[in-house]
Known about the structure:
The structure is a single chain. The chain is built from 5 helices and 6 strands. The protein has helices at residues 13-23, 54-62, 74-82, 100-115, 128-148, and strands at residues 2-6, 26-31, 43-47, 68-70, 86-88, 94-95. The relative contact order is 0.17. Helix 1 runs parallel beside helix 5 and helix 3 (74-82) runs antiparallel to helix 4. By secondary structure, it is α/β, with parallel strands linked by helices. Strand 5 (86-88) and strand 6 (94-95) form a beta hairpin. Strands 3-2-1-4-5-6 form a 6-stranded mixed sheet, with helices on both faces.
Amino acid sequence: MHIYIDADACPVKDEALKVAERHGIAITYVSNAWMRLPESALVQRMVVAEGPDAADDWIAERIGAGDICVTQDIPLASRCLKAGARAIGNTGKPFTDASIGMALAMRELSQHLRETGESRGFNAAFTRQDRSRFLEALENAVQSIKRAGK
């Protein structure tokens, strides 16, 4: 089991490390630029080349069954699910095979509305409840993978 963090805009880097340390799981933070990250013997830092999908491609090429990806990027979450991995959003929302199709469709619709000026886009503020939901979702994913023996 390995945890991959799509780190560029991830607000739960410290929380992910807490869960990883509790279970002794290696964690890799993947970003397009160097950034200050939590320190631990379990932490690997990967800085990839600049580019719109470089971090996503790096994660998708390495992730597999029994791994977990933390990302808000819906196409990356879809790629991770196809590889047999788990994907969890920063707010604790797990992406699943049952929900990813609708998430991709809503992403496309939102992008279209922004491009046509019908919507200016809106990202809700990240709350303490989001942080708490994330910790619970990551812990549940780790426990589920352990029970499955992967």
